[in-house]
Write a structure and sequence with these properties.
The chain is an all-beta fold and 378 residues long. 2% of the residues lie in helices and 43% in strands. The strands form 7 sheets. Strands 3, 4, 5, 6 and 7 form a 5-stranded antiparallel beta sheet that branches. Strands 8, 9, 10, 11 and 12 form a 5-stranded antiparallel beta sheet that branches. A 4-stranded antiparallel beta sheet has the order 13-14-15-16, with no helix packed on it.
């Protein structure tokens, strides 16, 4: 999304079977963008992952509007997925500076993470006619000492996800070194409501700035990028929100040598590995997590120097996985073919600037944020 202060737009591109993409259209969210407070100023204006998110099962797409404290919902035409249409009106997040959102597995519930002075989470049911309808007993505060717009990246909120079984809602919060950050975990009831309080789960020793979160399939665990170290692994098998039991001996921290700020991540079902991006080094790092939740670095793939690789996502096209990486400083999207473990291949970068300009769309490299993919389910 463009995340411009005078009007936010979702930019949609078509995916070809060879992984390439072509700019198609930009659709207004009917909301406003915003940029967090940071020095020096630069890309990653929301300090987040998940600012725009698609649900393949729900055939919907959501986008946050951090400058107007709303979240927008669109229907996706499965026969022509770049054709998105707003459902209802943008919904208030009941907080400030929304910067991440998540859908549950079947796309019937959406939750948003507010990161400003009024911070916390809020959830909605997804209605095909009305759009986002607030769910009672889901507005929950984090109580962070923040501002609007948010100050960061240190000390800011990062990402919100549902657990693999949809019984927990999890938000990541970066620390302010040397104080580590944490994951906030709420229980999700069958009616979609959240537990009154959250459990605070700390990273393993040495963890500092948990950022993006990617589910480790079948393990009740999460891989979280850590901008201060590399990545963290969180084991939720012993987390009990009601009893506030949050420690796990399997929580671990894995350094990435030479990393600058590893902040975004995604998982490939085809290779079984995770792919992490670093905004400073413009590096993609492939990571494996074994059955005992031990994480190791498989290989690294340099991208365009200075392109500031941030949000990423992986799409399966004709049985093959492709990784898409937003490069705001180059106003482009890099594409990698994930051929096999340790054998990713750079396919090049596809520039959005010329097409956007011809469409009369303003793109500011410092404001561009978010990356999600949608592939029609056969």
């Amino acid at each position: 999304m463009t995340n411009e202060a005078d009007g936010n737009f979702v930019v949609a591109a078509q995916l070809a079977s060879d992984g390439s993409l072509v700019f198609n259209r930009a659709v207004s969210t009917r909301g406003l963008g915003s940029h967090g407070i940071t020095s020096p100023n630069g890309p990653d204006g929301l300090f987040s992952q998940g600012s725009v998110k698609a649900s393949a099962t729900g055939k919907v797409l959501g986008a946050v509007n951090p400058g107007s404290n709303t979240v927008s919902l669109f229907s996706i035409d499965p026969q022509n997925p770049v054709q998105i249409s707003m459902i209802g009106q943008p919904a208030s997040t009941e907080g400030e500076f929304p910067m991440s959102m998540a859908f549950n597995k079947n796309g019937t519930q959406a939750c948003v993470l507010n990161g400003g002075q009024v911070n916390g989470v809020n959830c909605y049911s997804v209605d095909a006619q009305k759009g986002l309808v607030p769910i009672p007993n889901t507005l929950r505060a984090l109580g962070l000492n923040q501002t609007t717009p948010a100050n960061g990246p240190a000390g800011s909120t990062s990402h919100i996800v549902f657990s693999e079984d949809n019984t927990k809602l999890i938000a990541s919060i970066k620390g302010i070194p040397p104080t580590p950050g944490f994951l906030a975990v709420w229980d999700v009831a069958s009616d979609g409501s959240l537990s009154q309080d959250f459990a605070q789960v700390a990273p393993g020793s040495g963890g500092l700035l948990p950022f993006s979160m990617t589910i480790i399939p079948g393990k009740n665990a999460i891989l979280a990028t850590d901008a201060g170290v590399g990545f963290d692994i969180f084991d939720f098998s012993t987390v009990d929100v009601a009893k506030n039991e949050t420690s796990s001996p399997k929580n671990s921290v894995v350094p990435i040598s030479g990393q600058g700020a590893t902040c975004w991540s995604s998982f490939s079902e085809q290779t079984g590995n995770f792919y992490l991006t670093d905004i400073i080094t413009s590096m993609v790092t492939e990571v494996n997590v074994d059955n005992n939740l031990n994480g190791t670095i498989v290989k690294q793939y340099p991208q365009t120097p200075g392109s500031a690789t941030i949000d990423n996502d992986i799409a399966t096209l004709n049985g093959k996985d492709f990784m898409y990486v937003l490069e705001p400083n180059a106003t482009s999207v890099a594409v990698l073919s994930l051929n096999a473990p340790g054998q990713a291949q750079n396919l090049g970068s596809f520039n959005l600037a010329a097409q956007a300009k011809s469409a009369g769309l303003v793109i500011n490299p410092f404001n561009l944020q978010g990356m999600t993919t949608f592939v029609t389910q056969k």
